[in-house]
Amino acid sequence: MRIFSGIQPTGPMHIGNYLGAVSQWLELQKQHECFFCVVDLHAITVPQNPKELELATRNKVIELLATGISPEKCALFVQSQVPEHTELAWILNTMTPLGELERMTQFKDKAKKQKTEVFAGLFNYPVLMASDILLYKTQAVPVGQDQAQHLELTRTLAKKFNSRFGETFVEPKTILKKEGARIMSLKEPRKKMSKSDKPDSYLGIFEEPESMKKKIMAATTDTGKEIKFDEKKKPGISNLLTIYSLFSKEPMQKAEKKFQKKDYAFLKKSLAALLTQKLEPLRKKKRELDSRELYVKEILRQGQNRASSIAKATMQDVREKIGLLQS
Ligand code: TYM
């Protein structure tokens, strides 16, 4: 299968990104043809400081490498270095009904959070995302739950284009994890964990253990004392249990049993200890990579080359199909 997925450069990688998306990428890269992309052009749909954006993009690549994304097994690249993404986005924009974009819940949420003006790029964001995916004739896209609606739009646009201009794009399927597709905020466990909320609501994968422990100990829990998985009645405890179960690779039932007669503080302390232990090798790898600027550049150059050769061929086909004059 050909796989494509992306992550925004801004903000630290948090355990929602890792458990919902990146942990799937790590499995899929073992057996499939994978393209993983740091989507800097998506990040600028809200205002960014140029110097910080550049640093964040490089840092996100390093974070992905440190989690185990392997340049030998996949193409790892930066979106803006393959300009065909934006060319296809323009073309797909000309066939995207406004109504489809108005329905997007992520746009509504982000527009609400945005303190300054809301720009057209934020509204058209899902079209750029569809272009990222369709450009590579992607068959499957591993993401968290919050991206599922964008994937539906991607399939709609593929169908529209194919029926108007002939078979061109593949309709990609969405791959969601059974558990971990929606990790919740530590502070408001009925909302998803998000990097645009306050730092005490998320756990960074590369965060120092002390800071992580503080946040976990201060996480919102539920009324009652019992430790059991029940998303409706116990969203806070269920979220902590999910994170525990995924990082320990113990099934939920086993995790529940382990904490059956214990109190909330014990669960929190155990989770902090588990994360400290599991994430230490990743932190170490990141520290090593931080100083290897040339190595990281070379990986991105190779990723760009692999992505470009497919992107160029797709765009040539698309240009011919829609009647753009060939040079
Ligand atoms: P981004 O950068 O917000 O998040 C990267 C990935 O992490 C997942 N994720 C979560 N999963 C579980 N629980 C959470 N709380 C959580 N928060 C985030 C996201 O679902 C995502 O898979 N629009 C995308 C980036 C993108 C993309 C693409 C993805 C651009 N083009 C093409 C796939 C294919 C985004 O902003 O992800």
Automatic annotation (TrEMBL):
Which residues are L-tryptophan-binding?
Answer: D132
Record-level GO BP terms: tryptophanyl-tRNA aminoacylation
Q: Single GO cellular component annotation? A: cytosol
The principal location of this protein is cytoplasm
Q: What class of enzyme is it?
A: ligase
Q: What is this protein called?
A: Tryptophan--tRNA ligase
Q: Which UniProt keywords apply?
A: Aminoacyl-tRNA synthetase, ATP-binding, Cytoplasm, Ligase, Nucleotide-binding, Protein biosynthesis
- UniProt cross-references to Pfam families, sorted A to Z: tRNA-synt_1b (PF00579)
Which residue numbers does the motif 'KMSKS' region cover? Answer: 192-196
Subunit note: Homodimer.
